Amino acid sequence: MYRKSLAELAADLQAGVCSSAELTQACLDRIAALDGRLNAFITVTADAALQAARAADARIRAGQAGPLTGIPFAHKDIFCTRGVKTSCGSRMLDNFPAPYDATVTRKLAEAGAVMVGKTNMDEFAMGSSNETSFYGPVKNPWDETRVPGGSSGGSAAAVAARLVPVSTGTDTGGSIRQPAALCGITGLKPTYGRVSRYGMIAFASSLDQGGPFTRSAQDAAIVLGAMAGFDERDSTSVQREVEDYRATLDAPLDGLKIGLPKEYFGDGLDAGVGAAIEAALEQYRKLGAQLVEISLPNTHLAVPAYYVVAPAECSSNLSRFDGVRFGYRASSPKDLTDLYQRSRGEGFGAEVKRRILIGTYALSAGYYDAYYLKAQQVRRLIRDDFLRAFEQVDVIMGPTAPTTAFRLGEKADDPVSMYLSDIYTIAANLAGLPAMSIPAGFVNELPVGLHVIGNYFSEGRLLNVGHRYQQVTDWHTRCPAGYE
Ligand code: GLN
User: Fold this and answer.
1) Is the pTM value of this prediction over 0.90?
2) 6-256+434-477 architecture in CATH?
3) Rounded distance between C-alpha atoms, residue 437 and residue 176, angstroms
4) Among 172, 209, 317, which residue has the most ligand 1 atoms within 8 Å of its CB, making it the best to mutate?
5) Contact 459, 338 (CB under 8 A)
């Protein structure tokens, strides 16, 4: 059962080939048997899942099912889930059962999807390897000595290892796409504002966006359709109708103009990864697409601008964790200052503290103009580069990450080299554009991701571009050894 795609499972549920209770139990059994190797889950909600599955079965019998009704899935532990621990990968929230549901949580529940648990992640979504989690690192199912990517590493590993057919993630600088690439699955970051951020614990509010992890673009179209939409509780969510992403999956790619930024194919790109991407581009040419060299001249400024904007916003967002209202509280404080200092000192890990320090510095009086304001100006230049490019081309392609999955510990003590693993993904967040990673081959048995960036609200086009490729390739169907 677990080998099947979401679309196939939905058809089986409708036809009565299996029940959601059976399917959910099968996922729970696989998690129990295999997650000891991966550490992809922080919390497994077996009882609630089986109850939700029985309710989904009743709905299916009553003829009221949608494409997600009865489908088991996992939430990144950044989405608030009422009454269920929502840790954000941090000691700070280890004792926090969310008092309400995120909009994404509510929407998926209303669609009848069955949550089986919450997945491991870098602490407060800060990281590219899942090594900053309070709950320990996640292992990559393709090679358990390697990282799954981050920050949504647990969600990516869980789908890659066939523990669940679908999971959710969030992407502030690459946290859906980079782990999707390193784990050999499909991950989509929608346009900023397409998916509600209400109840999605904030890291950098102007960059964060939720999206799906699936094994195919076709499955992502189904899940995104359920996640997306205007939400009056999120003032940055966009009032715009959600398209039927499935309706356009099969559109032909004849005449599609693919932009290849020369800046994405230079120094720092692993030769094997580069060769896999070239082969994928050749496949697109055969599908009728036209390859056009373009330039995004401010690409080199994306990582530096991000590492001002994101820490600045995080230092502000994370100020709410003060040991007073919720979350971790240090024992026997001497006075209020001691309570704040020790609760934050003991509750946050090293990477989170580094970001808060950088952000607080960048926002402090006298430095604001030099750093934050300057970074916002650079951000505008990066966006303008893309807008110019989209006058010429329909989508932009390149590698999702410069290398395949690296070894656990390999970059843990070198923040700058870790930060550079998002060199291709960060610009889409700075500009607010939608982008996707799809499996596009292997180097030494480790997956490579093809990155596809689209213009604002072109999610339907991206999924179409992914689906047509997946119809003529089988990279997305490969399963890591030991998890077949
Ligand atoms: N790796 C990047 C960071 O550490 C992006 C993380 C993310 O997208 N949440 O900030």
Assistant:
1) yes
2) Alpha-Beta Complex (3.90)
3) 8
4) 172
5) no
